[in-house]
Amino acid sequence: MGTPELISPRSPRVTAARRLVRRAFRGKERRFIAEGPQAVREAVAHRGDDGLPTLIELFTTVEAAERYADIVDAARAAGAQVHYADAAVVADVSQTVTPQGLLGVCRFLDSPFESVLRARPRLVAVLAHVRDPGNAGTVLRCADAAGADAVVLTDASVDLYNPKSVRASVGSLFHLPVAVGVPVEEAVAGLRGAGVRILAADGAGDDDLDDELDAGTMGGPTAWIFGNEAWGLPAETRALADAVVRVPIHGRAESLNLATAAAVCLYASARAQRVRTAS
Questions:
Q1: Which site among 89, 122, 126, 278 is 20 to 30 Å from 226 CA-CA?
Q2: Got the DSSP string for 136-169?
Q3: What pLDDT does 94 receive?
Q4: Terminal Cα distance for the chain, rounded
Q5: With a cut of 50, which residues of the chain have pLDDT below it?
Q6: How far apart are the C-alpha atoms of 122 and 223, rounded to whole Å?
Q7: What is the mean pLDDT of the chain?
Q8: How many other C-beta atoms lie within 10 A of the C-beta of residue 80?
C-alpha cells in the first residue's frame, strides 16, 4: 500500500470531508460521514433508490486497511474512491475519541414519505420532537431490530445525518427506509390514510401496554410516536393519536429512557403482529 497519500489535514479532500460535520454543509452537499467498520460495511452494500452506490469515498489508515481488507476491497469494487491517510488525518475528520481508522463519505439516503406510504407499512417508528442525536440513532437501531418497515423523523426532530445519530444507529441507518422533515400532522394523516393505527408512547398515557396486548388490539399495522426524553410528547401531538400508551413500570424505577421504551413498544407490536399472522 505504500505511504499514506493524504498527509495533510489541509488537503482539499480532507477539508471537504471535515466540513460535513456541520449540518449546513451536509444539507448543501447532500453527503454525510459514516465512521467505523460496521457503518462503512453497510454503506458499501447500500444503494439508493436510484440504484447508485451510497458510499462515495473511503478514508482509511494503512493499519485499518490491512485489518479490514474485505471492506476496503468491497468499497473499491463498488466504485468508491479509496484514500490511504495518516491516522492523524482520519482523526481530524472523525468525531470519535478513539477513531477506528475507517471513515466513509456517503450520499444522503432518506426516502420520500410518499414511498414509505406506498409500501403499505405494518410497523413504523415516528420520532417527533426527538432532539438528542444519540437517542434518534438508537431508536432507529431498535426499529431495525424489531423488524419495522420504516422510520419517520418529523421536522421538529434532530438531523438524521448528525454524526452521533449515524454512529448510534450502528449501521441500521442503511437497513430500512427513513423519511425526514415530515410535519407530525402530515405523518399521522398519511399513515392513518394508509390504514395504520397511531399509538403515542407516553409515560402518562391512559392506556397500559399490557392491557393493549391482552385485548388483542396490537396485531394490525401500527405506528408508534416517540417524543422528547426530557419532556415527552406535547398535548397537541398526543391528541393526534388513536391511543396514548404507557409502558407499565412494575418495579420502583421512576421511568424508562426513550430508547428502552421504544424497544419495548416496537417489540410488543412485532410480537402481536406475528401472532396474528400465524393464527
A1: 278
A2: HHHHHHHHHHTT-SEEEEETTSPPTT-HHHHHHH
A3: 84
A4: 58
A5: 1-2
A6: 8
A7: 91
A8: 22
